[in-house]
Amino acid sequence: MVVQMDVSTVSRPNTRTTAVSETDSRFSVPLRGVAVDEQTRCRHWNSELDVVALKFTCCEAYYPCFECHAETTDHEPEQWPRERFDEPAVLCGVCRETLTVEQYLDCEDSCPSCGAAFNPGCREHRHRYFEQ
Ligand SMILES: [Zn+2]
Ligand SMILES: [Zn+2]
Ligand SMILES: [Zn+2]
User: Which ligand is closest in space to the CA of residue 58?
Assistant: First the structure.
């Protein structure tokens, strides 16, 4: 196992860690996570493109990633159910608009509201967030 220096949280300004039962007051939706910046990058995913947060139905709150959910709550995650794909469950950290799951899955890796580019690699992890 390679040990990496954690420089990411140092170089990113205005990060905040919020755990259950609090939510991050900078966002208008309930959101928590580890070392979250103002565009919803987190300790785990913080490239230029990592600017979405995803809602979990178990606690009806947004998290930048699955690992943020694991570290800031005390329960098992539940995927967003298919019958609710027409509800807002994805937050664009750049423009702060919420997208429905359908909009997000159809958006070709850029925000339909502001055009911000999203990380195409997130496609590989969709099964962790959305019911298949
Ligand atoms: Zn939860
Ligand atoms: Zn995270
Ligand atoms: Zn946007």
Answer: 1
Q: Which ligand is nearest to the CA of 15?
A: 2
The residue-averaged pLDDT of 89-114 equals 97
Q: Cα–Cα distance between 106 and 27 in angstroms, integer? A: 24
Q: Which domain holds residue 110?
A: 5-129
Number of structural domains in the chain: 1
**Which ligand has the nearest atom to the CA of 62?**
1
Q: Is the peptide bond before 28 cis (omega within 30 degrees of 0)?
A: no
For 63-93, write each residue's pLDDT tens digit.
999 999 999 999 999 999 999 999 999 999 9
DSSP 17-51: EE-TT---TTSSS-B-EEEE-TTS--SS--STT--
- Through-space distance between the first and last CA atoms of the chain, rounded to whole angstroms: 32
Q: What phi and psi values does residue 62 have, to the nearest 5 degrees?
A: -95, 145
> What are 105's two structure tokens?
């899955």
Q: 14 CA to middle of ligand 3, Å?
A: 20
